[in-house]
Amino acid sequence: MAYAIAGTPHNALESIRGHGSRPAVDIEIRQAVVTGLACVLVEARLLPALVPEGELPGAEVIMAQREAIRAIQGDILACLPGDHVSLVRRYETVPFLALVIDAHGLKALERLGDIVARVLSDRATAASALSV
User: Fold this and answer.
1) What pTM was computed for the model?
2) Which of 15, 26, 97, 99 has the fewest Cβ atoms within 10 angstroms?
3) Which of the two residues, 60 and 125, has the higher pLDDT score?
């Protein structure tokens, strides 16, 4: 499936094949999954890079960018073990997913360096989960 973002063809998997790097992972996430769960924000490796919607030339390009975000999020989720990852939120306008993961979920994310750029600690989700 190809999408045009700001005039550039995009395919969530094909356009980034060969990138080969491992995603950056916050150290506190590594520490948290040793003993339990971690609330994380996963940044997808969206290519071409995200352009703020206010800078895009029109509704069609905005919708194409949002579809590219949905596609790469779907690619990431399809590669994760469901029993080690819980989806908290899919963001519509930025290439992020909010997840709760364990150690196996983190290992799975680390194998997705072609489509995952970073795994960040999600303090907002963690704080709301603790207050419930």
Assistant:
1) 0.81
2) 26
3) 60
